[in-house]
Amino acid sequence: MKDYKGQDVHKLGKCLHSKCSLCPVSALTEWTNLNDASNNILQSARQTSTYQPGSTIFHQNDAPLGVYCLMNGLVILKQMDVHGIETAFRLLFPGQTCGWRSLFGEHPHQASALVLEASTVCFIPLNDIENMLLEDPSLSRRFLKTIARDPGPANAVVLRNPPLAVRTRLTHLLLILSEQCMSKSIDGDLCYHLPIQRKHIASLIGTSVETVSRTIKELEDDSVVFFDRKKVLIPSIEKLRREVE
Amino acid sequence: MKDYKGQDVHKLGKCLHSKCSLCPVSALTEWTNLNDASNNILQSARQTSTYQPGSTIFHQNDAPLGVYCLMNGLVILKQMDVHGIETAFRLLFPGQTCGWRSLFGEHPHQASALVLEASTVCFIPLNDIENMLLEDPSLSRRFLKTIARDPGPANAVVLRNPPLAVRTRLTHLLLILSEQCMSKSIDGDLCYHLPIQRKHIASLIGTSVETVSRTIKELEDDSVVFFDRKKVLIPSIEKLRREVE
DNA sequence: CGTACCGTTGAGGTGAGTCAAAGTAAGTGG
DNA sequence: CCACTTACTTTGACTCACCTCAACGGTACG
C-alpha cells in the first residue's frame, strides 16, 4: 500500500489526488477531460478560499450561487427541520463537491455546510458553470453521474432507518468511514482517525450522544471495535461486516 | 379550482397532464420542448406496456436498461437491505419517471419498482436516451433538475427519521399524499383516497403495521384525521400542519 | 361458505430517549 | 506552570414509545 515515494497510496488516491499540485480540482470526477474552452473558464472562474472550523460555507435557505469543491479539510452537511432537529446526512471529504443539488434543482439550499476542520474550498460561480455546460456538453453527463451517486441519500437507507438498531447503524457508519478516512492496517488490525465528534455521529445516524457513547462501549465489550478518544481500531473487518448483516 | 371544462384543475395538472391525449409523455418535465430530432427519437423509441398489480417493472440488482415513465396507475419503489428489511422510499404517480438514478449512476438498480395499481408504463431504452442527450443538450439539464428534486431523498429526512415520533412521520406522509392524491374539499373538509395499504405506509415511514394502525386511531381520537377504510378525511388542514411542527 | 388477505386490538418486553450529574480533555489568561 | 473556564464525553436512573408475538374481526373472492 505504499507508492514509490513511500507515501500512503490510499491517502494520495482518495484524498489529495495526484493532479492537485497542478490544479486542485482538475482530477475530480466532474472536471476530468474538459475541453480547452471550458477548462479555461474553470481556471479563471474558480475562487479559492479557506474556512475555519465552526464557520459555514453556505446556509440552509440561501440561494445557490455556485458549486463548492473541497480541496482539503472536512465539511458536514446538515439540515434543520421544522421540529428543530439537526439532521446531518453527509460528510464532505477532500475531492468532493457540494452545492449542486439546489443549483440544478433550482431551489434554495436545503442544508447548511458546516466546516469541521480548517478547509480550503474552490468556488465556481453559477454563471461559469452555465457557460461550461454550454461549452462542454459532456460535463452535464458527469454531473448527472455525481448526483445519481450521491452517497447522502444512498447511505441514509441504512444509517437513518428507524427499524434498524442504533448498534447496526453505528457499525455501518464506522464501515463507511473506514473507507474514507485513509485507514491503515497495523499487523492485521484496521486503524483510522475518526474525524468527527460524538454529536456528529449521533446526528448522522439519528440518535442521541448518550446512546452513541453507550453503544460504543457495547461494541468494545463484544470486541468488535475499540475506541481511544478519536482513534478507531478494528481487530477484524470481517467481524465488523458480520455485525451489519 | 375548476377549469373551463368543469374539470378539477388540480387533478388535471398534477396527474394526467393536458397533453397526455396527444403523447402521454410529452408534457412531462424532462420531455417538454424537445427539439425535432430528439422528439422523433422519443416517439419512435418509446414502448408502452401495461402491468398488473403485484408485478415488478424492474428488480433490485438488475442492470438499468432505460427510463420508465408512468402514464397511469401507481408504483412503489422499495429497497431490500442486507437485513431483509423492505424499505419503501418513493411512490411513483402518473407523470413521473423512474430508473434514471441507476442509469446515470452507472450501477445496478438499487430498488425494485413494484406495481400497486394496474399501470401503463412507457419505456425509453438506454440507447435512445443517449441519442436524445446528444441531439438535445438541454435534455440533460432537465434530467439534472429531476434528479436534484427527487422527492425520495428529500422526503426521507422527515419520513424516515429515527428521532421523530411515528405520529409525526405518519402525519407528514398524509400531508404529502394529500397533495398528490387529487384530494377534493367537501365543505371545508379535505378528503382523498389513500392509494396504499397499511403495510406500505409502515414501510414508507419505517415502522410496523400495528403501530400504523394504533397511530391512526390516536389521530382519530384527537380529531386530526379520520379514516374510513381507504378514505382519508381531514377536517382542518391547518390542524394537520400544526401536528407536524 | 370457506379460504386468504388485510386490518385491528391486546399483552408484554425492551431499546433508546430524557434528565441530571460527574468525569475528562482542551483552551485561556495570569 | 497552574487555576480556571469551556466544551466534550461518559455514566446512571427513570420512563415510555414502539416492537414482537398472538389472537381476533372484516372484507374480498372463488
Quick structural overview:
2 copies of one chain form a homodimer. Chain A has 245 residues and is an alpha+beta fold.
- Helical stretch tally of chain A: 10
- State the total count of DSSP E strands of chain A: 9
For the largest interface, the chains and their residue counts are: A-B, 46 and 47 residues
Oligomer: homodimer
N-to-C SSE series of chain A? HHEEEEHEHHHHEEHHEEH
How does this structure look, described?
Two copies of one chain form a homodimer. By secondary structure, the first copy, chain A, is α+β, with helices and mostly antiparallel strands. The first copy, chain A, folds into two domains: 9-149, Sandwich (Jelly Rolls); 158-244, Sandwich (Jelly Rolls). Chain A contains ten helices and nine strands. Chain A has helices at residues 9-16, 36-45, 100-105, 126-135, 138-148, 151-159, 166-180, 198-205, 209-221, 237-244, and strands at 47-51, 66-80, 86-92, 97-98, 112-125, 184-186, 189-193, 226-228, 231-234. In chain A, the strands form two sheets. In chain A, strands 1, 2, 3, 4 and 5 form a five-stranded antiparallel sheet that branches. In chain A, strands 6-7-9-8 form a four-stranded antiparallel sheet. In chain A, helix 2 (36-45) runs antiparallel to helix 4 (126-135), helix 7 packs across helix 10 (237-244) and helix 8 crosses helix 9 (209-221). The longest helix of chain A is centred in the last third of the chain and has 15 residues, at 166-180. Chain A is globular, with a radius of gyration of 19 Å. Mean pLDDT of chain A is 86; it is low at 1-21. Chains A and B meet through helix 3, helix 5 and helix 6 of A and helix 3, helix 5 and helix 6 of B. Chain A binds a DNA duplex (30 and 30 nucleotides) through residues 162-163, 165-166, 197-199, 207-217, 229.
